Structure formats: structure tokens, C-alpha cells
Amino acid sequence: MNHRIYLDFNASIPIATEAASAMRPFLAEHYGNPSSLLCAGAPAKDAVEKARGQVAGLLGCDPTGLVFTSGGSESNNYAINRSK
Fold this sequence. Notes:
Elements: H1 17-28, H2 42-59, H3 72-82
């Protein structure tokens, strides 16, 4: 057996084919900031809200209670600051 074993998924991780396909339009065509008031961000904002609803459906929770962050540090800071 001669196959690679990669143990540093903290630094990077392969992207699932399904996730890459879902993201492709937002990397090439609809790359506006979803938090922007400009119309370029509208498709991205719609996609974020659709994803929020899908995740909420899987978790059985209210979509307004979900917060997406850019990573672990931001998530930890958000959780710590919300508990104060």
C-alpha cells in the first residue's frame, strides 16, 4: 500500500465535490458581498439565507438563531462575547 496519509486537516481540508459545485457560481459570477447594500451582493445574500434555512431544517431550529462565521476563532469569540 502506497497512499498518502494527511493528518493536518486543521490547516486545510479537501472540498467535497457537491460543495464545490454549489459554490462555483459564487466564486465566478455572483461574488458580491452578501452583507453589502449594493445589488451585486443580492445573489450571495439569497444563497446565504437559503443555506441558513437548510441548516436550520437539518438541526430543527429557528434559522434566525444561526450565525455563520469564517472559522473557529471567530466562532469562539462570538460565543464568549454572547455569554457576557
